[in-house]
Specification:
4-stranded mixed sheet; 18% strand; 11 helices; 32% helix; alpha/beta
Length: 349
């Protein structure tokens, strides 16, 4: 069989047991994508960028599931070696430069559309139905809600059993609520507020639009909470924004800047329906599970962009209709050839 993947799915990881039971979560992620692409007959490629692999652990392509005969998922592992990682000033504190690693995948993706995501997610059937319909627009970036679920269900269950369990055991939901058209309540600190409070703020924002500059109104529309888990747009759009901003920083908020850059360049935002969501397997060291003191300690070791600067940058992008313009022309190390392992029953055209 031969064909060109409609969708490239890009994620970054390494075999270091980050967050605990990392191999279990990655196994469920890969198996879930194999099952979903088969069910919906969607030819897609999964690019896992293995950044700075630990020398005492096996490479991921040797321990994670592989496609079988006639599976619709092409599985690619791109290995960025330790020598590249050690070029960075904070290499010791940050073993995985997640967004730069995703750029490596973006630059090498062959799909018409590229979804940047993470390795501890399952995708709902309704979400995959939308992807498999192949009606995605080139002038649009797509966002999906993330639903956090406990890490106590069995990888031995089939995908239907896992998704049914996830649907019934959601801890929290992150992402834009499509009922509020004038403002994203999360951006004004109302993520956990009751519906009536959010409704009041949404109506107030409708009036404030008359006094806000256009860029501020657009900023408060952005769906950027947990956007590193699901940002989907055409390959051309990723190239237009120059991928993710490549900084020698921890990845916090860099995914948000990607959303704001796309919005600034005129790509329209489309938030998928609530049932077309991702399920995130809760784990230790996750940002949403930390208390404020733990977050402070985390950032002490791993500097990152603070939220105030994100706001300033967002308004600057939106006002001037521009992206970062800070990445090198070779962002994603496009000038280098990395070791790659490909598993597929398809011949990619």
């Amino acid at each position: 069989m031969a064909g060109t993947p409609y969708l490239s799915i890009v994620a970054a990881s390494r075999n270091d047991n980050h967050g605990g039971d990392a191999l279990k979560r990655m196994t469920m992620f890969v198996n879930g994508l194999i099952a979903q692409t088969n069910r919906h007959k969607l030819l897609a490629e999964l690019i896992i960028v293995e950044w700075n692999p630990p020398e005492d652990k096996p490479l991921l392509h040797t321990v994670l599931p592989k496609p079988r005969d006639a599976d619709y998922l092409i599985l690619r592992y791109v290995i960025v070696p330790k020598a590249i990682h050690q070029r960075f000033r904070l290499a010791r504190e940050i073993p995985l430069y997640q967004m730069i690693a995703k750029n490596v995948g973006i630059r090498r993706a062959q799909g018409e559309f590229i979804l940047c995501t993470n390795i501890d997610l399952l995708f709902s059937h309704d979400l995959f139905k939308i992807l498999a319909a192949r009606n995605l627009r080139h002038d649009t970036y797509y966002r999906a809600n993330r639903c956090d679920v406990p890490d106590n269900f069995s990888p031995a269950w089939n995908v239907d059993q896992q998704l049914e369990w996830c649907e019934k055991n959601v801890i929290r939901r992150l992402g834009r609520d499509r009922r509020f058209r004038n403002i994203n309540p999360e951006l004004v600190g109302l993520m956990g507020a009751p519906y009536p409070i959010k409704w009041i703020f949404d109506k107030a924002a409708s009036a404030l639009k008359l006094f806000w500059p256009e860029e501020r109104s657009k900023y408060y529309q952005a769906d950027c909470f947990a956007c590193g888990d699901f940002t989907l747009m055409a390959k051309k759009a990723w190239f237009d924004i120059e991928g993710y901003l490549e900084l020698d920083f921890h990845a916090l908020h860099i995914d948000t800047l990607g959303i704001l850059a796309a919005m600034a360049l005129g790509y329209r935002q489309h938030v998928l329906p609530p049932n077309a969501c991702t399920y995130h397997i809760e784990h230790a060291e996750g940002w949403t599970t930390m208390n404020p003191i733990e977050k402070l300690g985390f950032l002490k070791e791993r500097p990152s962009i603070d939220y105030g600067l994100v706001y300033e940058l967002g308004e600057h992008f939106l006002k001037n209709r521009k992206t970062y313009n800070l990445n090198p022309d070779t962002w994603g190390f496009s000038d280098l050839t990395f070791e790659e392992h490909i598993f597929s029953t398809f011949e990619v055209e």
